[in-house]
Specification:
Elements: H1 3-22, H2 24-31, H3 35-56, H4 63-80, H5 86-98, H6 102-117, H7 123-145, H8 150-174, H9 176-181, H10 199-220, H11 225-246, H12 250-253, H13 262-277, H14 279-282
Length: about 280
């Protein structure tokens, strides 16, 4: 093994460590992917996580400068095929290996930057934010899932975007309390946390999320064998979380963070494996 290979291996380990530290659910899903694509998916998540932490955690720092520097370092890493930042080194490898489009990276940073200066959203700004913060991440992963094949990628873009959007909106509901009271952000238009959370607005948003889950489902079963199981596991975990959030009143969402415990996550594995293998049966369930 050359030193270049050792450095890349170390960078993959760093991205994996960041992923495991911040998300047990995504870590579990990634473990169920084919070995040949796991490192690249860890690389995407590690990259996304660092940017998220810049805008969500380090409030005592100059976040705009930090994000600008991280973005510039990202483009430099992609162009040079190397970075002294091990997270970016692993990410550039995934981008260059699977030909991930630069406009996806640009859209992602645009949404991250809006978190620094926008506290409330209109429907249009929310759609733009979700595209950059979640849908493009799904598209980055899709490029890896199909091994860079453009024809396969194009056929699954719609489903991947819907899945990313559904995941993000479920996160918004789950983190409603933290986002508003700790970060001063309110993503869903129509909610006024200082006065009242309208149950009718909640139901409308839930209907939209349910529709996105349905649109995403068919695309998951068209993924290659190497990624279908892992993505389906993440889908079913988020669907279970979504159902728990639906059954929780708006008022209670402000006082507790709804979770799916680790035992419930693990119990999803055997049935998800079956469904991923026998997808023709899954479509009937």
């Amino acid at each position: 093994m050359t030193n270049i290979e050792r450095y890349l291996k170390a960078s993959f380990k760093s991205s994996k460590s960041v992923t495991k530290e911040f998300s047990t659910s995504f870590s579990l899903g990634i473990k169920c992917l084919g070995k040949d694509i796991r490192d690249s998916i860890y690389s995407v998540y590690g990259f996304v996580r660092v940017a998220d932490e810049i805008v969500d955690t380090f409030f005592d720092s100059n976040q705009e400068i930090l994000l600008d520097e991280f973005e510039a370092a990202t483009y430099s890493a992609i162009e040079e095929g190397f970075s002294t930042n091990v997270i970016l080194h692993s990410f550039q490898n995934a981008v260059n290996k699977f030909k991930i489009d630069n406009h996806l990276v640009e859209a992602f940073f645009s949404s991250m930057r809006s978190d620094l200066n926008k506290n409330k959203h209109t429907q249009q700004s929310l759609d733009e934010y979700v595209y950059g913060s979640a849908e493009v991440v799904g598209l980055m992963c899709l490029k890896i899932f199909v091994y860079g094949d453009q024809k396969s990628y194009d056929s699954l873009v719609f489903s991947a975007k819907k899945l990313g959007s559904a995941f993000q909106k479920v996160n918004f509901f789950r983190d409603l309390n933290e986002d508003y009271f700790e970060k001063g952000r309110l993503y869903f238009p129509g909610f006024d946390l200082e006065k009242n959370l309208d149950e009718n607005v909640k139901k409308k948003i839930e209907s939209e999320i349910k529709s996105e889950f349905d649109d995403a489902r068919n695309g998951i079963y068209k993924l290659p064998n190497s990624s279908r199981f892992g993505v389906l596991l993440a889908y079913r975990y988020y669907l279970k979380l979504f159902k728990k959030l639906k059954s929780t009143s708006s008022k209670k969402l402000l006082s507790k963070r709804v979770r799916v415990n680790n035992f419930q996550k693990i119990m999803l594995i055997p049935t998800t494996y079956f469904l991923s293998i026998f997808s023709f049966l899954a479509k009937k369930l």
